[in-house]
Amino acid sequence: MRLFKHPALFSCLLVLVTPAAADPGNPGDPHRVVAAADSAIESRMRSGSAPLRLTLRETLQVALARNPSLRGAYLGRVVDRANLDLANQAFHPRSTVTLQAREQRTAGANGVRTRTASVNPSASLALPTGAQAGLNWRIERVLQSDAPDTAPDSASAVTLDITQPLLRGGGLEIGRAPVERAHLNEEQNVLALESQVISTLAQVIQAYRNLILENQRVELAELALDRSRQELENRTELVERGRLAAADLAPARESLARQELQQAQTQERRDQAELDLIRLIGLEPGVEIEPRDAIDVHDIDGLLTDAPPLESAMDTALDRSPEFRQSLVTQRLTALDRTLAEDANRWQLDVTASVELRGDSPSTTRAIERGFEESPGHSLGLRLSIPWGDRHTRQQRLGAARVEQRQARLRTQELRTSIRIEVERALGALESRRDQLHLAEQALDLAQQAVAIEQEKLAVGRSSGFEVESVERQLREAEQSLLDAAINYQNAQTDLDRAMGIVLERWDLAIPSRTTDTSAYID
């Protein structure tokens, strides 16, 4: 069979009919991410008794893999990537094969009955220039006919059609618009996930530090409860010796009851803080968590960081903030919509070209051969279509696209202002928390000096145990105030990181992807 007499046409036939190779890559299953983290956590829990001791970074890593909202977002990303893969196949050939068997009888008393069978491979290809190419190959055979003079038994016809728009729908910008839109939507989805991750991690950070704070408050409440019990025992002993009246036991008992209530309330708040953290990082209720990270109130200088200048922080925020980058992508989407609306107002002017190879013969094989042996028929022309009657609709669409583009620009400007206000507020809060931290540190120094003085006075008989206990209680309260100030300062730093969009960079974390191995999430 001499099919290579027209190599250009045969090459087009191969390109259009042959399906594109399937992408062997398969988006990673988020369930594998969660299963790996589950295995690591269970291994850690089996290695020792509860509670589960986690550093803040480990807690953030667990939250990345197990937070219920983030897990749902990861599943959504699988769908998003599948949609992008489909959009990227817009310029891949699409082919079909149609098989048909037909029996036909003409009208009238002497109608002729004909039975035919046909095979019809066809393919189409969209080009980035907006052109559409189609290849159709029809092989038909007459199986039976009642007509006295029957036409050749078989026919083969190969037709290649190409249409290239010159005005509406033409050009790379318009032709690639669907793919460009898909990539912009994918960029929006990635930024939306990043924004959700940053927000979730900021909540986890504050919940973790809140658990540290509540643990410290529980310790202080237990110390206060022990002091109240000791004071009641001392007074009871004095009453038994006759040195105090029985009525003097009432204040001590009242103080003990008050401290027991406070200790129970403090423990309840601590348990609630633990449950909040467990919920955020996606662990099962009943797992006890013990923060491994601690805040040393005697080394405050180690907590302090240099705040960036306002302009530097703004540059970072505009470069890293997912919300601001989303607004820029939205501008590009609205610009694309406006371009498409403007294109829809153009006239339709197309160049059309067609090539046909045809062969007839009693033999199907010979009909195919003759089709490729004969000189091809061809056509070339221009086709002009002028839209009529819907000008108002098209103008409305263009006007709406222009308005949406301006609105997107205004939203970006408004967001820029909001980010600046948020960064300024975060910097101001950080500076204020720094000052409060220094004041709390000074108060702790004064409380320590007061304890030292009272102990010296007690050694020479110029003070009492009650006064020493009072200043020691004030010292513990000063330590608690300093811890509160230190955590507030760190939370202010986290708020600034969130405003600047650098929470992930601050903790050296990455959003799980199809190639991320999270089996090492727990060290």
Helix content: 55-70%
Mean pLDDT value: 83
The profile of the biggest β sheet is: 6 strands, antiparallel
Query: What are the secondary-structure elements, in order, as H or E?
Result: HHEHHEEEEHHHEHHEHEHHH
Architecture overview:
This protein is of the alpha+beta class. It has a domain at 7-21 and 96-126 and 131-168 and 350-386. 60% of the residues lie in helices and 15% in strands. It has 13 helices and 8 strands. The chain has helices spanning 7-17, 30-46, 56-66, 68-88, 172-175, 177-241, 249-281, 310-320, 322-344, 364-373, 391-459, 465-500, 503-506, and strands at 52-54, 94-105, 113-126, 132-145, 154-165, 289-291, 348-361, 377-385. The strands form 2 sheets. Strands 2-3-4-5-7-8 form a 6-stranded antiparallel sheet. A hairpin with a 7-residue loop joins β2 and β3. The protein starts with 6 loop residues before the first helix and ends in a 17-residue tail after the last helix.
SSE layout and pairings?
Blueprint: H1 7-17, H2 30-46, E1 52-54, H3 56-66, H4 68-88, E2 94-105, E3 113-126, E4 132-145, E5 154-165, H5 172-175, H6 177-241, H7 249-281, E6 289-291, H8 310-320, H9 322-344, E7 348-361, H10 364-373, E8 377-385, H11 391-459, H12 465-500, H13 503-506
